[in-house]
Amino acid sequence: MNNQSAIKVKNLVKNFGKDDNLVRVIENASFEIQKGEVVALIAPSGAGKTTLLMMIGCVIEPTSGEIWLGDNMVYKNKWLAKDTRRIRREKIGFIFQAHYLIPFLNVLENITLLPQANNVSPKDAQKKAFELLEYFEIADKAYNMSSQLSGGQNQRVAIARALANNPEIILADEPTAALDGERAVSVIKMLKKIAVEQNVAIITVTHDDRILPYCDRIMKIENRGIVFHDKDAKGIL
Amino acid sequence: MINLAARDIEHSLGKFIVTTMGVGMLLGIVFIMIGVYRGMIVEAEILLNDISADLWIVQEDTLGPFAESSRVHEDLKNIIYVMKGIDKSEAMTFQNIQLPSKKKPVRVVAVGYDIYGTINPINPDRLIQGRELKNDHYEIVVTDKTGFKLHDEIKLGRNFYKVVGITTKTVSNNGDPLVYLSLKDAQELQFLYSNKEIQNNVARGVVNSESLMVNTIVARVKNGFSIDEVAEDIRKWQHKSVYTAQDQKDILTKNLIEKSSKQIGLFTVILIIVSTIIIALIIYTMTLEKMKEIAIMKLMGLPNSLIISMIVKETLLLGIFAFVFGNIFSHITYDKFPKLVVLQIPDAWALFGIILVASVLASFVGVKKVISADPAAAIGG
Ligand SMILES: Nc1ncnc2c1ncn2[C@@H]1O[C@H](COP(=O)(O)OP(=O)(O)OP(=O)(O)O)[C@@H](O)[C@H]1O
Ligand SMILES: [Mg+2]
After folding, report:
1. Domain count along chain A
2. Is A220 in the pocket of ligand 1 (CB under 6 A)?
3. Among the ranges given (A201-205, B69-73, B190-194), the one the predictor scored with the smallest mean pLDDT
4. Residue A12 within any structural domain of the chain
């Protein structure tokens, strides 16, 4: 089943600014990522990792090119969907370096907010949330506020939130950067497990070579284009 | 769906309560000012209602006796009395006087009436102590607000007057307390000159006929007669200005309403604008504090409608709680104001409506911020 395409990018170009201030970030990037695959995205700072992730996530508009998510073409020189936010809401889970939980909602509410916006009944949303919380071993914190949790616990809640809407794609921007080594490994193991069990495509930006072994492939931005490396390649970072 | 507005307010409850109380106090002041205005209109009509005359006959071409000075002969009451359709007619005087008092002279309006007459300006319901006037001379009934007690002696002109009765809530159209005198005493106070002048006049052989003047004749019309027709008759035959009870109310309140409604209306508008600005500022800062979360919500894909409804609901809740607090505030304090404050439910509802509209307007600044928030900014590069 791992041969279906989750993300396909063709001739993607992204420039910021104009004329004298023109910054070329991505030029003619083309690649494809399958469902169930965990791909590490690496590149030096400022190379355009976040920018690429946000273009796939329909947050930042590319300059030109094509993007498919699953069977749907979402971008061809312009957004093809009227409501890109709906695509994010229904298909994509985001994880960041910081947890970005909403401070005035408790853990459970943070996780059920997005599914409820997708018209999942509060009951079903809570059931799913508790499954996730149990999976991440923080079910006892369901009614706590984010401020009452440790950094690692918050990050696990943030991952649970990204999974709550059963996304087809998870885009993670340095999800382990704020965690110590042991926790970082446990998070990437979790993501790997989710990818396999739920057939989700995951791209994770990382600077951490301890988590590379858990990824299926390594994608690198080189000379503004995309190059794939074997995950066992030495000295890649 | 999770009620984001309620959750956010819960999260910053202290700040929310302090803000609502502040805005609530402003609204309470607005409510009291409207109440002062209502009170002025009520006060303007107290004397008219207590006398409850159908017709006011005054000097020709004047708006007397309250809005303009008017003088007519006391005899006129007899002439009016025999006219067709008249049931009762009496002479009355109204004058501003100062009651000497130990602390500070009290400005009052003295009502002079015929104590044997058929129209009594003292409303028995408002007489809380003592009795009405029984003697032609040197008795006075005063309003409790003047500070005088039963049996006090008050010097007016050349004589001492004994307080025989106390009324309450009796005020003139300007809000001055009323006192009641016999017609004879009142005429003497209003129209007689000083001792010296009288001696002079006597020496010169001038007879003072002024003391037979009054300010108005009030009349009641018999059942079955049209008040307007009787008024027209008097105008035609007596060359006097005649006002119905409603005309008189209009004369008194028109000037008053025009002046005070402008003044109080302006204050009210300013305070409501200030309240709106305060609400807008609070909502704006509350929104600014949440910009990170709002950007994250947008990035996750939550629709604008959800985020905007959070902001608008928060503003409305702020407005509603401020209104409730303002109401409590005004009801606790209204009777501590020197002026009569009349709090009316329709005014409260109108204010409520205005606050809702003001809150929605105030939420615009926050909503604008939400719409312009860049989801990519959430992750800060
Ligand atoms: N809104 C913007 N306007 C102009 N230039 C931008 C904008 N956003 C990003 N850039 C530029 O695009 C390039 C790529 O930025 P990006 O944030 O994608 O890098 P990154 O690979 O994620 O870096 P890091 O590892 O530090 O997070 C940088 O040179 C950055 O200055
Ligand atoms: Mg980045």
Report:
1. 1
2. no
3. B190-194
4. no
Q: What is the pLDDT of residue B211?
A: 64
Question: Where does residue B326 fall: left (phi above 0), alpha (psi -120 to 50 degrees), or beta otherwise?
Answer: alpha
Domain with A96 in it: what CATH number?
3.40.50.300
* Predicted confidence band of residue A2 (pLDDT cuts 50, 70, 90): very low
Of B71, B94, B48, nearest to B253 (Cα)? B48
| Inside any domain, residue A74 | no
Which one, of A39, A50, A51, A49, lies nearest residue A14 by Cα? A51
Q: Which chain A residues are Cβ-neighbours of B11 within 8 angstroms?
A: 103-104
Q: Tell me the domain boundaries of chain B.
A: 4-43+258-378, 71-77+88-219
Q: Does residue B191 register a pLDDT over 80?
A: no
CA A58 to chain centre: 12
The rounded distance, in Å, linking the Cα atoms of A22 and B136 is 103
| Cβ atoms within 10 Å of A236's Cβ, excluding its own | 14
ipTM score of the complex? 0.91
Window 281-300 of B, Cβ < 8 Å to A: 292-293, 296-300
Q: How confident is the prediction for chain B on average, in pLDDT? A: 89
Counting ligands in written order, the one closest to the CA of A46 is 1
E-strand stretches of chain B: 55-58, 72-73, 86-99, 106-113, 127-130, 139-143, 153-156, 159-167, 178-182, 213-214, 216-221, 241-244
CA distance B12 to chain A (A): 8
Ligand 1 pocket test, pick from A18, A20, A49, A60 with the greatest ligand atom count within 8 Å of Cβ, gives A49
Is A44 among the domain residues?
yes
* Mean per-residue pLDDT, A60-77: 94
The boundaries of the domain holding residue A149 are: 35-59+88-229
Instruction: Give pLDDT tens digits for A15-65.
Output: 998 888 899 999 999 999 999 999 999 999 999 999 999 999 999 999 999
Q: Is there a cis peptide before residue B65, judged by omega within 30 degrees of 0?
A: yes
pLDDT digits (tens, 9 = 90+) for B323-348: 999 999 999 999 898 888 999 999 99
Which residues on A lie below 8 Å from B378 (Cβ)? 100
**Residue among A60, A86, A116 whose CB faces B2 most closely:** A116
Partner-chain contact A88 B11, CB within 8 Å: no
State the residue for tokens 């108005």. B216
Let me know how long chain B is.
381
Whether A165 shows a pLDDT value over 80: the answer reads yes
Under a CB-based contact definition with an 8 Å cutoff, are residues B67 and B53 in contact? no
Residue A116 lies in a domain: yes
